[in-house]
Amino acid sequence: MNLSETGEARVRGYLFVLGQSLKSFLPRAVVMDAVQELESHIRERIAEVEPEPDERTALERVLQEIGMPQRVAQAYSAEITIEEAITTGRVAPTLRAFWNLATTSLLGFFPALGLLLGYLLGFGSLVTALMKPIFPNNTGVLVVDGVPKGFGVFSPLPPGGEVWGGYWIMPIMIAIGLAVLILTQRFATAFLVWWRARRGKSDTLSSWSAQ
Is the model's pTM score more than 0.70? Predict the structure, then answer.
């Protein structure tokens, strides 16, 4: 289907909203390339359609099948961030990918929560090790009335509470922290690989808009 000026204006409007939506999910440096890629797919889809009963009806049907631009932008950005997280293995892309999944899918919310807890536990262990020389009497395992309640830096101590552990806890906390962070990152990468395989790796608009 060859578009008239009115049809071109409708497509440009759709692409404008799509570009603005992508800016909410992706760095500005990659938004232009993303819009160009999506525009290419959209125009390929339009070219395959016959303008019956008229151009406007046919065009609106195509755009409706593609999906709302906000939804397409959200799904496309999720695919990009997941791919970056899997390829690089870095923490920042992994966090962005899980944040995207947590805000767009119930299935992604609980793994994202687990990822957050894993990072907090890992970094908390490292911070505890670093704080021991600074607050030696307040850093370690908190015991209240003989019952362990947690570990970290505690000031002031609760009634009946005391901190157990000398400087020997530093290497233990460092080892625990690093182990938890490594395992958390590996879990995150494995989950993202599973997620990508589950939904199928595709570069079609139907896969982006169907999420």
Answer: no
Both structure tokens of 167: 């400087």
Report d(CA 82, CA 74) in Å as an integer. Answer: 12
> Consecutive 10-residue runs of the chain (211 residues): their mean pLDDT?
84 90 81 86 84 79 86 83 89 87 81 92 92 90 87 85 89 94 94 82 48 49
User: What are the backbone angles phi and psi of residue 39, rounded to the nearest 5°?
Assistant: -60, -40
**Do residues 22 and 34 touch, judged by C-beta distance below 8 A?**
yes
- Cα–Cα distance, 211 to 207 (Å, whole number): 7
Find all residues with CB under 8 Å of 187, minimum gap 6, and list them. Answer: 114, 115, 118
DSSP the chain: ----HHHHHHHHHHHHHHHHHHTTTS-HHHHHHHHHHHHHHHHHHHHTS---S-HHHHHHHHHHHH--HHHHHHHHHHHHHHHHHHHH--HHHHHHHHHHHHHH-HHHHHHHHHHHHHHHHHHHHHHHHHHTTTSTTTEEEEEETTEEEEEEE-SSPPTTEEEE--TTHHHHHHHHHHHHHHHHHHHHHHHHHHHHHHH----SHHHHHT-
